[in-house]
DNA sequence: TTTGCAAATGTTATAATGTTGCAAATTTCA
DNA sequence: TGAAATTTGCAACATTATAACATTTGCAAA
């Protein structure tokens, strides 16, 4: 049984989702932002998937819902959720994941398993600081930092070893 | 006069380009890879621009050249150049820049100015190591690391100060 | 209550980015 | 040379994202 904190560890994910939605409501209230039904549903869909979800994946599920949504609907909801710090966009995948540190100030770092597709968000203060130092050394004023690491997660790494 | 190593420092860029192409030829020879005219031309175009160039930007210039190229031509050339370590793809911009460390083993880190659009590639050993440590702590095997920092470069930062 | 405004959503179309598949040409090397 | 592998040309298509404008909704001030 894996001891890692990776999200693909077996767990009752419904609880994660419920918690994330509850947190989101709180955060939006604090921001005086409106977590409308569409926005909340999009957030829920993203959370229900451990793997990053593309905008059109979201769109497809909304269609199954009977919600006859067009792309702008989804992109707007995603923009909103990003602004509220509730989801992150993974640039190297054109896809979105729920933020596991919503509400807290943090610099995300993403471990993306190429094998199983799962993504783990970390906060790595050492990395943030090193990045900061590198930027300062160039007199560069960082605004948004994207750190995405593609590779193999522990579970998949073990598997290939056995092969 | 700026003392930074940033690429927007005034210089004769033709020399950079020529040097990059010469290096590329050497590297490809070492790799037994064929730097065909199209591939070389694409590399040249990317180098001539200090700002990241999208695939369709490249395509447009090729069209001006009279080269009636289709998207796959460009994407294939870009794939090749990436494999040879001659260009980098900036995921957050869907665009490409010439690699300023071609041939050397390195972990790139990109400073992207939102104001002027220029991009500086750095090697920051501290960052690489911190990233490595973070990955190891999760038993994750990194394969490809993407670090992109959007913000304001020194030149543009000064400008806004004056405003 | 209604009026008015800003925010949010709907709708259509289109832009921008990237890929597949196959045939023709070119290069490599035995 | 001639077979095999690589590269290119080409057409069609797939995916991702945005523009523009109309409409509706939520909310607060008159």
Description:
- The structure is a homodimer of 163-residue chains.
- The first copy, chain A, has 163 residues and is α+β, with helices and mostly antiparallel strands.
- In chain A, 47% of the residues lie in helices and 19% in strands.
- Chain A contains 6 helices and 5 strands, in the order H-H-H-H-E-E-E-E-H-E-H.
- Chain A has a 3-stranded mixed sheet with strand order 4-3-5.
- In chain A, a hairpin with a 5-residue loop joins strand 3 and strand 4.
- Chain A is globular.
- The N terminus of chain A is likely disordered.
- Chains A and B meet through strand 3, helix 5 and strand 5 of A and strand 3, helix 5 and strand 5 of B.
- Chain A binds a DNA duplex (30 and 30 nucleotides) through helix 4.
Largest sheet of chain A: 3 strands, mixed
> Proportion of β residues of chain A?
15-25%
Determine the fraction of residues in helical runs of chain A and give it as a percent range.
Answer: 40-55%
Low-confidence stretches of chain A: 1-6
C-alpha-based Rg of chain A, rounded:
17 Å
Tell how many strands the DSSP assignment of chain A holds: 5
The run of helices and strands of chain A is HHHHEEEEHEH
Structural class assignment of chain A: alpha+beta
Question: Which assembly state applies to the chains in this document?
Answer: homodimer
Q: Can you give the mean pLDDT of chain A? A: 91
């Amino acid at each position: 049984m894996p001891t890692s904190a990776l999200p693909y560890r077996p767990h009752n994910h419904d609880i994660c989702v419920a918690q994330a939605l509850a947190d989101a409501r709180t955060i939006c209230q604090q921001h005086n932002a409106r977590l409308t039904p569409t926005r909340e549903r999009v957030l829920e869909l993203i959370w229900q998937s451990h793997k990053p979800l593309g905008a059109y994946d979201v769109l497809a599920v909304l269609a199954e819902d009977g919600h006859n949504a067009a792309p702008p609907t989804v992109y707007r909801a995603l923009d909103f959720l990003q602004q509220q710090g509730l989801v992150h966009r993974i640039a190297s995948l054109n896809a979105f994941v729920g933020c596991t540190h919503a509400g807290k100030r943090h610099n995300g770092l993403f471990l993306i398993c190429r094998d199983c597709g799962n993504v783990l968000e970390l906060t790595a203060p050492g990395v943030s600081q090193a990045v900061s130092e590198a930027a300062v050394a160039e007199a560069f004023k960082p605004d948004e930092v994207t750190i995405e690491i593609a590779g193999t997660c522990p579970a998949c790494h073990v598997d290939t070893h056995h092969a």
